[in-house]
Write a sequence for this structure.
């Protein structure tokens, strides 16, 4: 252990998920910089370290849910199934850390508590909860897009005598066998956890505020031939990913929903339902489901009819059936609706019959019923995108707090940099691309490390986004989003899931291909979106 409380480095990476791990590799192994990565968790993996709830699975297909920068790593990755589970992803990321000898440069159980930029030195001072302070030129933040847990403020929540667990901070010792369990929330997470635990619990009550559209995931093992093809077609597949919008590994449809006959449309939806995958259902079937209200309704009504066919009890089916737009992050599941046919599973619609309060014995609903419980699972999501940035004291030039800079909603240029915070590079910061994440993470990390590599050659220099450019990017993101139906649905994609959080655009919905083009131009033209501060006296 180093006894010096201030460690001087070239760069500090905060977070050891997909983004932080790759950044550390680039900065150390390719640029040869003195870089360290910290994470508050007890292990690497980011999202996949914390989300250990039963049923946790990436619903991007496994062949695009990994790094592409190393063909050998790709060829060796033993993912046998179409979608890959949390333990496998965690093992993979741990393996990547070892493969690139990064472990000695990681500091676990170390949280950034404060970061401040000093424009007299051009350096960031980063304080941690372990007594160590870092002084660095470059601060790379991979704090997690979906990381800061949203614990709802339900009356009496602290009085519950049983176990209370958020899926995003899952306690490994929690055994649900034979327990009376409540699941509050039914987004991606709730939709995974409900079918996974129903067979083992005594009784499961799903507390649902807004029912959601979900289609089967269709998870299955790849055949040996398919696995071989994924390795053989590596270049072609990844080129397709980089040339696509969603980076999901399929070609997004441009067909119009109403350009085909009713029978054909039904057949397209049926085929997508049978094939599986939420993003495929929304974006591979027709090109206007996310933009045209009538097309959206055609897809939504197909799913509603499926629910009516699957769920036997009419009242349960009614409670499970969404009536609003199909314009949140598209979900897929492994038998979600079927699960509600089980005798030990029930559903409360808390928009109709609200939770009155939580009491030591369980949940009391407005109709006077006490739901006696051993465990309450909060599948209530995250203070997404900017949540972790606001929860940490990050101060830029002139002592400005990032949370204050973002008082009217989070802003950035390219999702990676924000005005007043020089040489701070965010991975998956606000208004970055809305895609399957690993490909966008790779693109961002590569751009960031190229940029840092160029700055590193100029001692004391820093890059800061121009204010007008940040403003324009925010407007661009809002304009693109407004051309879709997504802002009309209340979801985390627009910050609508957190009480009191300002509803605002949080993503660039222009797609990965466009995004890559913008990044390439920015770098090729020597950063027209940024001001370069070069110190008057350069001591090499
Ligand atoms: P989501 O998608 O934000 O879903 C959260 C769920 O929790 C959703 O059903 C919410 O209902 C519900 N919720 C949130 N707050 C409350 C309160 N106060 N009372 C009752 N119910 C509540 O989070 P997930 O973890 O499922 O998924 C997040 C992303 O992680 C996902 O999109 C993937 O990309 C990975 P609501 O719909 O707001 O009425």
């Amino acid at each position: 252990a180093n006894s010096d409380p201030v460690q001087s480095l070239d760069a500090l990476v905060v977070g050891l998920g997909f983004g932080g791990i790759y950044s550390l590799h680039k900065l150390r192994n390719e640029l040869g910089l003195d870089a360290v990565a910290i994470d508050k968790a007890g292990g690497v993996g980011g999202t996949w370290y914390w989300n250990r709830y039963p049923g946790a699975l990436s619903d991007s297909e496994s062949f695009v849910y990994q790094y592409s920068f190393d063909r050998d790593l790709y060829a060796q990755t033993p993912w046998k199934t179409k979608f890959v589970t949390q333990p496998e992803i965690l093992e993979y990321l741990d393996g990547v850390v070892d493969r690139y000898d990064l472990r000695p440069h990681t500091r676990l159980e170390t949280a950034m508590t404060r970061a401040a930029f000093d424009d007299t030195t051009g350096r960031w001072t980063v304080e941690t909860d372990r007594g160590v302070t870092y002084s660095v030129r470059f601060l790379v933040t991979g704090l997690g897009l979906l990381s800061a847990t949203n614990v709802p403020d339900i009356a009496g929540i602290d009085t519950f005598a049983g176990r209370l667990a958020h899926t995003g901070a899952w306690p490994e010792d929690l055994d649900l066998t034979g327990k009376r369990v409540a699941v509050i929330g039914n987004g991606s997470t709730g939709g995974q956890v409900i079918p996974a635990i129903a067979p083992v619990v005594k009784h499961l009550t799903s507390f649902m505020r807004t029912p959601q559209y979900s289609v089967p995931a269709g998870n299955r093992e790849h055949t040996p031939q398919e696995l071989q093809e994924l390795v053989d077609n590596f270049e072609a597949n990844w080129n397709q990913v980089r040339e696509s919008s969603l980076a999901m590994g399929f070609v997004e449809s441009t067909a119009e929903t109403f350009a085909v006959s009713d029978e054909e449309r039904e057949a397209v939806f049926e085929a997508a339902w049978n094939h599986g995958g939420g993003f495929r259902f929304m974006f591979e079937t027709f090109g206007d489901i996310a933009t045209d209200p009538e097309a959206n309704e055609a897809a939504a009504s197909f799913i509603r009819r499926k629910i009516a066919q699957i769920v036997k009890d009419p009242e349960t089916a009614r409670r499970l059936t969404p009536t609003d737009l199909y314009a949140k992050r598209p979900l897929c599941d492994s038998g979600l609706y079927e699960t509600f046919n089980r005798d030990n599973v029930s559903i409360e619609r808390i928009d109709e019959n609200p939770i009155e309060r939580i009491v030591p014995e369980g949940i009391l609903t407005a109709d006077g019923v006490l739901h006696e419980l051993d465990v309450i699972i909060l599948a209530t999501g995250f203070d997404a995108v900017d949540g972790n940035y606001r929860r940490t004291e990050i101060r830029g030039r002139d002592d400005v707090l990032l949370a204050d800079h973002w008082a009217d909603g989070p802003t950035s240029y390219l999702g990676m940099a924000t005005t007043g915070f020089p040489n701070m590079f965010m991975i998956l910061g606000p208004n970055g691309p809305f895609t399957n994440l690993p490909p966008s993470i790779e693109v961002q990390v590569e751009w960031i490390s190229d940029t840092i590599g160029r700055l590193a050659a100029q001692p004391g220099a820093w890059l800061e986004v121009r204010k007008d450019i940040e403003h324009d990017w925010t407007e661009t993101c809002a304009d693109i989003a407004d051309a879709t139906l997504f802002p009309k649905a209340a979801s985390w994609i627009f910050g609508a899931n957190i009480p009191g959080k300002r509803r605002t655009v949080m993503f660039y919905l222009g797609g990965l291909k466009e995004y890559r083009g913008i990044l390439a131009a920015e770098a090729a033209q020597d950063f027209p979106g940024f001001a370069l501060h070069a110190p008057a006296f350069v001591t090499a």
